[in-house]
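Give me structure tokens for this 110-residue protein.
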Amino acid sequence: MRLEIHGQKVPVSAKLQSHIERRLEFALDRLAPRITSVSVYVEDVNGPKGGVDKQCRILAQVKPSGRVIVKETGEDAFESVSRAAEKIGRAIKRRIDKRRTNARPKARTP
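Here you go.
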């Protein structure tokens, strides 16, 4: 699984990068064989105004289902990354389960 981390108006410190890697590893570990790449974008949406404005967007390329995208906003980058990581794990699992359920043949009733 390839991981890319991008900061948009937010510097991605070594501490933040380590946090992102740990949270994604925890959330996606069992799903890793199905994931080809993950891109994480951390952004300060309000700029210098302050407020609830640190947004984390995670895009995961899942084979063979396609792309899964989640977005979370929080007080700081660490909070939004943690919530987005949990959310992407659930979203990918749901996508895989849905595909698996739809691929099964329907039982015929006599």
